[in-house]
Amino acid sequence: MPVTYSKTLFLLNKYSYSASSKRTHKKRALSEIKKLASQTIWYGVPTIASRFLGYLMNLSLPLFFAQPSVTADLTQIYAMIPFLNVLFTYGLETAYFRFSKEEDPQKLYSTLSLSLIGSTILFTGIILLFSNQMIGWSNLESHPEYIYWMIAIIFFDSISTLAFARLRQENKPRKYAVVRLSSVLVNFLSVLFFLGIIPKYVTNHPASDLSFFTNNGIGIGYYLLGNLAGSILTFILLFKEFKQISFQFNPAIWKKVLNYSYPLIIVGMGGMVNDMLSRLIYQHVVDLPVEEAKHELGIFGNIYRLAVLITILIQAFRMAAEPFFFKQSAEEHAQKIYARVMKFFVITCCYMFLFISLFIEIFAWFFNAINKPLWTEGLYIVPLLALGNIFLGIYYNLSIWYKLTDKNRMGAYITIAGALITIGLNIVLIPTLHYLGAAIATFTCYFFMMTISYWMGQKFYPVPYATKKIIAYLVIICLLYAIHKLILFFIPQLWVGILTGLVFIGLFSWLILWAEKKEFQRIPFLNKIISK
Question: How many CA atoms lie within 13 Å of 160's alpha carbon, on the beta-carbon side?
Fold first, then answer.
């Protein structure tokens, strides 16, 4: 009898300890996810503001310019910038997070900063040397100054990269937000002033000296000049971080970092191929006269940005998630935290998709209302692009497996494969399907990268993702969009589209609250709603 009692007591204590441990883990995991969400908001505010103001500026293009072809050169420039940013920064940002715990922080920061400044000056000189070739290839003979302004933007943005990374590593999201927002505000106000206020004033006062700004032929180039002004302001506001750079270059640290980061150049370049290639080569691939090709490129560049909400979320999430994932890697239940983060991330992306796809008719109504129907061309591909961007966001979540296991080469291989798919499909599909061909290429590439990364990640660094739920949520939002389009096919009224869109978002919200009831019950505010 005593033996039985002792054994029972032991089992009860063991069960109690196990249950307590699980509760503690869940509370800790939820706390960490809340912290990640908070930091995502802080890092996301400037990103959201940047994208939103950029989209407002983009949305204002039909107000400033009657023909979409006028914006083609700007689209071309902004397709080139991300490629050069990858080359100029060569993975140092991610490497800084990776080695910040292993190496002396000051030595690491100084070594990488000196490397970045030196290489930026070198790369800038090389690009200036071949600037004429770049002008010819990108069909910018009428505006060669765009290339030089672009180089200046990349110069200041690249030098600021590690200063921003230091703010993120030291958990200073407020300063990060202030600097980013200041840059964006200067950009926005510059465009508003030079393309909105001054032209209107000169129209009413043609003898004014301000007519110089409307007669100098810059036109849409003020977008680039505004961007350049914002980049220079960023450089100035980060002066304190630059002062922390000491002239102590450590070759051993530098060699170790480069060995880690060079595959990230391939990953980054491949990522840019997948994201930007369609706009970069559109004029060269589509079988149309130059002006018609510029017309389609201008429209396609505008359409692509309509998926801006999902892209905003992805960028904001990456800003906070990369240092977060590395810090969490030492925790006992890190994989479970990663799995929960993924699930909440996908749910958020699903809402973004629904808002974009169910209310796309509002954009069409706006362009028609301002008597610019040409800008409504191609809106039908926006949901496909948005869904493809969800796959990209999932891939970024999944990619933590090769970053944590130091298998960056595997990430490079995945990205190269995706880039080959993008290149092949763009070349084959754009000549015949135009916008749709580019959208199919983007969708297919990101779906492939997401799928192969999940399969390989489960092999090398298994994470218990809620795969069935995630797939179910993605299928449901696609079905809701399909039903919405079917309803509008029979009743093509704007108010019907808005009403059904709101109803479907409400239905999806009810489904999420039901399916994630246990998760949301841990959040006091949502627990009250669920209880009611």
Answer: 21
Contact criterion met (CB below 8 Å) for 311 and 442: no
Structural tokens at position 448 = 């492939």
Number of neighbours of residue 464 by Cβ within 10 angstroms: 12
Kindly list the distances between the CA atom of residue 225 and the CA atoms of 142, 147, 220, 231, 381, in Å, as whole numbers in the listed order.
17, 12, 9, 10, 31
Check residue 194 and report its DSSP letter. Answer: I
Cα atoms in the 13 Å half-sphere on the side-chain side of 59: 17
- The owner of tokens 């191929």 is 273
Task: Tell which residue, 148, 166, 140, 176, has the closest CA to residue 49.
Answer: 176
CA dihedral sign of residues 383, 389, 394, 398: positive
In order along its 532 residues, the chain shows pLDDT tens digits of 444 444 444 444 544 444 455 555 555 555 555 555 555 555 556 655 655 565 555 656 656 665 666 677 777 888 888 888 888 988 888 788 878 778 888 888 899 999 999 999 999 999 999 888 888 887 788 888 999 999 999 999 999 988 988 887 777 777 887 888 888 888 888 888 888 788 888 888 888 888 888 787 787 888 889 889 999 999 999 998 888 888 888 888 898 888 888 777 777 777 777 777 787 788 778 877 777 887 788 777 777 766 666 666 666 666 555 556 666 655 666 778 778 888 888 888 899 899 888 988 887 787 777 676 776 777 888 899 889 988 988 888 888 777 777 777 787 788 888 888 988 998 999 888 888 888 899 899 999 999 999 998 888 888 888 889 999 999 999 999 999 999 998 998 888 889 999 999 999 999 988 888 777 666 555 555 555 5
CA distances from 316 to 47, 319, 320, 473 (A): 6, 5, 7, 22
Going by C-beta distance under 8 Å and a sequence separation of 6 or more, which residues neighbour residue 458?
A: none
Beta-carbon contacts of residue 482 (< 8 Å; ≥ 6 apart): none
Cα–Cα distance for residue pair 407/356, rounded to 1 Å: 36
What would the two tokens of residue 108 be? 């690491």
Whether 342 contacts 400, CB under 8 Å: no
pTM higher than 0.85 for the full model?
A: no
Please name which of 46, 128, 123 lies closest in space to residue 83, comparing C-alpha atoms.
123
Q: How many CB atoms within 10 Å of residue 501?
A: 22
105: its two tokens: 């922080």
- CA nearest to 278, candidates 493, 433, 510: 433
Residue type, 280: L
**Residue 508 and residue 496: Cα distance in Å, rounded?**
18
